[in-house]
Amino acid sequence: MKQITGVVLILFLVGCGATDKKSQPPVQTESPSTQRPSVNPPATQNNTPRPETNTLQPETKTLQPETNISQSEEKTIYLCSNTLSDENSFTDTYIQHSTDDTDWSVSKYNLLKTEDIEKAFNRARANDPTVTKPMILPPQNIWDNYTESEKVLYLVNKERCDRGLRPFEGIDPKIKSEAQNYATYLKNHPDQYAHNPHEADGRTPWQRMAQDAGVIVNQNADFFQYGENIASLSIGSTGNAFPRIYESEARAVYGWMYQDKGESYGHRNFLMAKGLQENSGLKHMEGLIGIGKTTRQYQDGGYYWTQDILVMDSFDPRSSWNNDLASVKRIELYR
Questions:
Q1: How many other β-carbons are positioned within 10 Å of the β-carbon of residue 293?
Q2: CA dist 12 → 152, 187, 220, 307 (Å)
Q3: Prediction pTM value
Q4: For residues 12 and 228, is the Cβ–Cβ distance under 8 A?
Q5: Sequence spans of domains, the chain
């Protein structure tokens, strides 16, 4: 059975600076407001993956991290205690140097272990001047029991913590539900998704979070200029069965971090955002996220296609959100 990679779309949405009142997310309304944040719109993409003329085969070459990154023999839990001062001293020279993308260096078609994911991330980290520590995942049995949201949160927080940034505090169930509903909407409306991924249902991410999760900027949330990241990964097969995309959560975070030059590093800026207000929840942590994931399978052009769609939404809660923090899911980091 021959397998090929299809279109890999990595989409993002950001607003302008917090001082621009016109760019602030709209408050909750019964119908979508005509007010829109100023954004860098993603390029219009054809949502129907097409076979590539040169069939890609599974990669067999294993790339090791550079000498400035070494693997840890034992994995232990630790607390990321970065402060706002640490965060403010961070400069993303990876973006300043206009660093080229780094290809995913392990198999795109087969079951992946945590050591495979670590190898891929560490190869990219070896080309990144902002980090000197290795990507270390939890033990395999713990990783396998993580949900989609937990895998994304772990990887994003590990990327942040290893660069001196404060981690996101955790997964909010209301945002997770909102993101999941939108991911399902994108799956069921591929034409609208192709036309305008972040507003396929007629609402901005901030409107969805307000109307579906109760996030009201300047009431229970501070203004946060980043609203949403979307990733779409597709793989096709000439066989008579739909292929599976393994570890699409890791592939999505990797794409947002290390394959984002074509999007002016907008996704990476989101994941490396600074300046979240330390006014809720645990010390040295700020910001809540939610991940939605859906899988679409269909036949096109004689191929069996599988498409994974991931939606990451986030907001910066105020102290008035504290009543809901008891339900927030937090993830421990390993080194």
A1: 23
A2: 16, 17, 24, 18
A3: 0.80
A4: yes
A5: 8-13+107-327
User: Alpha-carbon dihedral of residues 181, 183, 186, 187, nearest 10 degrees?
Assistant: -100
Per the DSSP assignment, residues forming a β-bridge with 222 are 316
Q: What does CATH list as the number for 8-13+107-327? A: 3.40.33.10
Q: What is the pLDDT along the chain (335 residues), one digit of tens a residue?
A: 555 554 444 444 433 222 223 333 332 222 222 222 222 323 323 333 333 222 223 333 333 343 344 444 578 999 998 888 888 899 999 999 999 999 999 998 899 999 999 999 999 999 999 999 999 999 999 999 999 999 999 999 999 999 999 999 999 999 999 999 999 999 999 988 888 899 999 999 999 999 999 999 999 999 888 989 999 999 999 888 999 999 999 999 999 999 999 999 999 999 999 988 877 767 788 899 999 999 999 999 999 999 999 999 999 998 888 667 778 999 999 99
DSSP 217: B
- What are residue 96's phi and psi, to 5 degrees? -55, -35
Task: Provide the residue type at 201 as one letter.
Answer: D
* H runs (alpha helix) in 90-204: 93-96, 114-125, 140-144, 148-161, 173-188, 190-195
